[in-house]
Amino acid sequence: MMPEWLDVGAETDIPLRGARTVKVAGGEEIALFRTGAGTVYALVNACPHKAGPLSQGIVHGDSVTCPLHNWVISLATGEAQGADKGCTPTIPLRVASGRVLICRQSTLGLAA
Predict the structure, then answer these.
(1) Which of 31, 47, 78, 107 has its CA 20 to 30 A from that of 60?
(2) Total domain count, the chain
(3) Residue 105 located in a structural domain
(4) Residue by residue, what is the 3-state secondary structure of 45-83?
(5) Residue 65 sits in a domain of what CATH number?
(6) Residue 73 maps to a domain
(7) Is 109 inside any structural domain?
(8) Beta strand 58-60 pairing with 63-65
(9) What span, in angstroms and rounded, lies between the C-alpha atoms of 59 and 92?
C-alpha cells in the first residue's frame, strides 16, 4: 500500500524553535515542530510522562522540553532523554514545495 500524505500547512506556519498543532481523525492532536536549523518533526502532542502538551514546550536543538515536568523528548525518535523512560509516537512527514505533509496511515487509530 502506498502511503497517503495529508497536507497540514506551510512549513513557514511553524515558527523557528517552535510548534503548532493539527487535529487528525478522532480528534488526536499532532504537534509539528521546527528547529532553529529549520528541520521539521511531527509527534503526538502528549508527553509520555503525564501527557503534557509538548507543543507548548521549549524547542532546543532536536529536542523539546515538556512544560509540565521538564522531561526532554527527542523530536527525531520521541524517546525521553536522560534518566527518564518513555516514548511519544512520531509521525512520518515530508516537506514538499514548502508544504508539510504527514503520513495519514500513521495517524489512523491514534485516538480511541
Answers:
(1) 107
(2) 1
(3) no
(4) CCCCCCCCCHHHCEEECCEEECCCCCCEEECCCCEECCC
(5) 2.102.10.10
(6) yes
(7) no
(8) antiparallel
(9) 19
User: CA 35 to CA 104: how far, in whole Å?
Assistant: 23
Q: Give the integer Cα–Cα distance in Å for 106 and 93.
A: 10
Residue 12 φ then ψ, to 5°: -75, -10
What's the grid cell of residue 84? 527518564
How large is the average pLDDT for residues 52-56? 98
Band the pLDDT of 109: cuts 50, 70, 90: low
Tell me, what's the pLDDT at 85?
A: 95
On the question of pLDDT at 33 being above 50, the answer is yes
Residue 85 lies in a domain: yes
What is the extent of the structural domain holding 72? 15-92
